[in-house]
């Protein structure tokens, strides 16, 4: 089937869904955040993953409207999670390079934060290294402005792109997310312990927090905890789930 057609139809018919994958703190295993992950609900009720339609959305430009829907839905959800159980929780949203390049990205973001009446600290943006390669001073200024609004920025899929360490030192980011390909793999152990250790050490020397993705086993959890990894996400603690299911998971983790 034609993915572009399915995507346009899904957007028009309000068939886009946001799932939330818990992010836990290694020191006490508590859920302290969630990553918002987009899905498209098909006619038969099954969910289509973003690896199928995000590339199409980026190519066609639909990612702009889709990205705004994701940001708005996340802000609305954060506001809904104002109860004592959930009010400390932060939500991370993935941002495509093309979204950042839209001239009014910052104004749009600021307006949504204000209208939703949420603490900007509870919203995080995940940007991949691709966002930083072609960075002249312009995008550094944009990242600074985003940070000044109070949001936190994480570099997603860290280690798989071409990050220059010089940039890393000067970028206004607070977190590195170790790509899951270094964490999970065929066995129960961490897939690439040398790289994982190096990223954690480097991140901490730069004053950055580290999130490990793809934590699937107890062995991987214990290895990362021993290295002082700050946060994690993965199937061991929870898959991407509905907002209601995340609420229950957080209640049980407290
Ligand atoms: O949810 P899943 O594990 O299948 O996600 C696959 C990829 O899709 C991830 O790399 C993630 O960054 C990307 N992705 C998921 N949701 C969004 C979204 O809302 N916007 C963008 N731009 N990418 C997303
Ligand atoms: O934004 P990013 O590309 O990092 O998206 C995270 C992706 O990783 C999502 O598609 C999510 O479903 C997937 N994921 C999350 N936890 C695990 C895990 O423990 N193992 C594996 N294999 N994939 C995971
Ligand atoms: Mn991500
Ligand atoms: Na990632």
TrEMBL record:
Question: EAL domain spans which residues?
Answer: 1-254
Q: Which keywords appear in this protein's UniProt record, sorted alphabetically?
A: Phosphoprotein
* Keyword Phosphoprotein part of the UniProt annotation: yes
Keyword Phosphoprotein attributed: yes
This chain belongs to the protein called: Diguanylate cyclase (GGDEF)-like protein
Name the source organism. Answer: Allohahella marinimesophila
Q: Which residues of the full protein are shown?
A: 312 to 565 of 568
